[in-house]
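debug: dumping io for the single-chain case to check the tokenizer round-trip. Nothing else runs in this session.
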Amino acid sequence: MVLTVPLPRRPDDTVRYWYENELGWATVPGTPVELLTGLRFDVLEAPAEAGYAALRHLRPGSPVAVRADRMRLFVAAGSAEELPGLLDWLEWGSLTLDLRATGAGGRIEAPLPPGPVHGSRGNGCHGDGAGAGPRTGAPANAPAAGSQGAAVWLRPPEPGCEVESSLPALSALGGGGGGAPDLVRLVETVATECHRIRLRRCCAQPLAFS
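debug: decoded output
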């Protein structure tokens, strides 16, 4: 009998296994591993500074990822389609904001699966918010976001849990504290912070004289 030794898993195989088998999230064939949006979630991306200010509107189990100076907030599927109309309704539609959404038919880079940080949480699907950080500003335990150019989890999803119940949704407006977080309040906060960042950068630019 000839014994065969299985080939070691490549890093991408381990990442894909975690997303597909532990979370049940769809991935795109190929490398690097990418996640399909518009199925179980959409993603709002904004400057990390604006995203940190909006963390108070999320439940503890709502996934959040960071890459360099950008934050990705996971929201209910269909939110990307609602974003332009929602910004208009909030009277932000006439301004150019550094806020974009990826929804149906889109894809994002898969953040690296959490290591010991994930295993040590042990708070169930939706914990008590420990380690979530302060209400504004960067949490004290925030990861070195994208120091190597890769996206990482600030608040990782919980294997075995239905992520949909923790995601901000438009239908949650006025739905009470027990339901999903409110997408309107989340977008309003992120848009406000994006505008503040834009104004600050404009004021910091030297005046041009002819």
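debug: round-trip ok. Strands lie at 27-28, 34-36, 42-47, 64-67, 70-75, 100-102, 107-109, 152-155.
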